[in-house]
Amino acid sequence: MLRTRTERGGAVFAETLGVSASESPGALSERVGSRFSEEAILAAGGPAWHDPALDDRSRSAAILTALTCEGVGGTRLTTQLERAVRVGLDQPALEVLTVLLSLYVGQARTSVAAEEIHRFFLRRRPEATPDAVSEGRDAS
Predict the structure, then answer these.
(1) Inter-residue contact 23 to 14 (CB < 8 Å)
(2) Can you list the residues of the chain whose pLDDT is less than 70?
């Protein structure tokens, strides 16, 4: 069991970024700088990430909800989509999440995430062609 808040936070970012625990501080620093990464690692070592009241699947749904409502896309969203898939969220669940959120925050915000989710899963299909993925359409 990880004892310190820094160790626990480093483990969260290792899992999120798909790197080893020893690589996670450097990988996060490359994205956001050392000051921000140190604070983020400490925050991730706290109760929000480690309280047994939420499982990792629920945490991923909550994170994707927050990112979607803020209109976040690109690498920040796809990093969390990778994590969500690893903890058991699939394409139908994520699509329903964006539909549900659109009822509360509107389609302007949620359509950005819906497009990214659609492209994300297209890229994961073995038959996906680069043109089909860039255009957001199925390869068939």
Answers:
(1) yes
(2) 1-2, 127-140
